[in-house]
Amino acid sequence: MSERKDVDFLLDIRESMERISDYTHGMEYDDFFQDHKTQDAVIRNVEIMGEATKAFIPWKRLAMTRDKLIHHYFGINTDIV
């Protein structure tokens, strides 16, 4: 398998952002708060973005968000997501 280039990680991030936008399009906050499937889908894509950002040194904060989401399953605050 060839080494991934920066553009590959950026494309992963863009795809995850587009998915989050698609999943939440037209939703109000209360709809999102009640829809656990959409929450899971959004959280998963934030995790993917966080993993992809680990290739970029200045983006550590998003990578840290990914780590918090992955390792605090029961402590995720949907107000922040």
Indicate the topology.
Elements: H1 6-24, H2 29-34, H3 36-53, H4 60-71
Helix pairs in contact: 1-3, 3-4
Structural class, please? mainly alpha
What fraction strand? under 5%
Helix and strand run: HHHH
C-alpha termini separation: 34 Å
Q: Which of globular, elongated, flat, extended, rod-shaped describes the shape?
A: globular
Main sheet overview: none
The helix tally amounts to 4
Helix content: 55-70%
The figure for the number of domains is: 1
CA radius of gyration: 14 Å
List unreliable stretches of 5+ residues: none
InterPro entries: HepT-like, HepT_RNase_toxin
Keywords: Hydrolase, Nuclease, Nucleotide-binding, Phosphoprotein, Toxin-antitoxin system
Pfam families: HepT-like
GO molecular function: hydrolase activity; nucleotide binding; RNA nuclease activity
Could you characterize what this model shows?
There is one protein chain. The protein has 81 residues and is an all-alpha fold. It has one domain (6-71). It contains 4 helices and no strands. The chain has helices at 6-24, 29-34, 36-53, 60-71. The protein is globular and about 40 Å long.
Notable characteristics:
mainly alpha, HepT-like, 81 residues, 68% helix, hydrolase activity, single chain, nuclease
Summarize the structure.
This protein is mainly α and 81 residues long. Helix content is 68%, strand content 0%. The chain has one domain.
